[in-house]
Specification:
Blueprint (H helix, E strand, L loop, with lengths): L2 E5 L5 E8 L3 H15 L6 E10 L3 H16 L7 E6 L2 H13 L9 E2 L2 H15 L1
Parallel strand pairs: 2-3, 3-4, 4-5
Antiparallel strand pairs: 1-2
């Protein structure tokens, strides 16, 4: 399956992994699983979206993900959710340039080149809140 959802044990962190050509139907299934996995979490949630091996560019994938979640799940801006992306070096560079201009502004980087770096960032941010 080109999309997977993994809620990390004992952590409010969900890793979404997207590989290859991604369709709205596959994203819908992914978000169904994501919303089921996180519905019992009342506190801050970090969503790490690993799109490093997904076909398409960052903006296209981001738009498809956003449109799909909004259309099928009536998603509103959820104060509990912080999104961090994992992408290729080029994707990270372009996304971080764009985010500095307006799209997403998070303390620190918003796009990392490895899941490990993204998880470390999420864990550090969660630790600061405790």
């Amino acid at each position: 399956m080109p999309v997977t959802v993994q809620l990390l044990p004992d952590e409010p962190i969900v890793v979404l992994t997207l590989e290859g050509k991604i369709t709205a139907a596959e994203l819908r299934l992914m978000f169904e699983e994501y919303h089921r996995a996180t519905k019992q979490i009342d506190d801050l949630i970090y969503r790490v979206a690993n799109i490093r091996y997904a076909d398409g560019d960052f903006a296209e994938l981001l738009t498809l993900m956003d449109d799909t979640e909004r259309r099928f799940f009536d998603a509103r801006l959820d104060d509990r959710v912080r999104v961090v992306f994992v992408g290729s070096d080029e994707m990270a560079r372009r996304a971080n340039q764009a985010t500095n201009q307006a799209l997403f502004v998070v303390e620190g980087e918003t796009v990392f080149t490895s899941v490990e770096d993204a998880l470390q960032f999420a864990r550090e941010q969660l630790t600061e809140l405790i």
